[in-house]
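Researcher: Go.
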Amino acid sequence: MDDRGAAIVNAWEFIRTRAHGRVRIVADYAFSNEILRALYPFQSMNHLRFSTTCDYPYDSLPYISAEGPDGRDYEARDELNNAIAKGPLEVVVPAVADAIRSKLKSE
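Model: Structure:
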């Protein structure tokens, strides 16, 4: 495994075991998505964000917000902070993965 791969594995392990509150729940679910698992995850406030680079400054990619008003819903947001999906993780995680795939294809 190269340095980038090791950094991604370590970041996922850290997020899945030490992230705050609902971000840890999001990370556990997002880890099962092949597209998201290949990216570098990081927590920013109550958001799980993703980057193609493992070094700061990170990419601006779509992300998952864990700040639902009722404690159950999550939001998928694009890199400009616009909502692209809202609901349970089963809806939000694939929406973020699809948005990231589309963004990376267009670059």
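Model: The radius of gyration is 13 Å.
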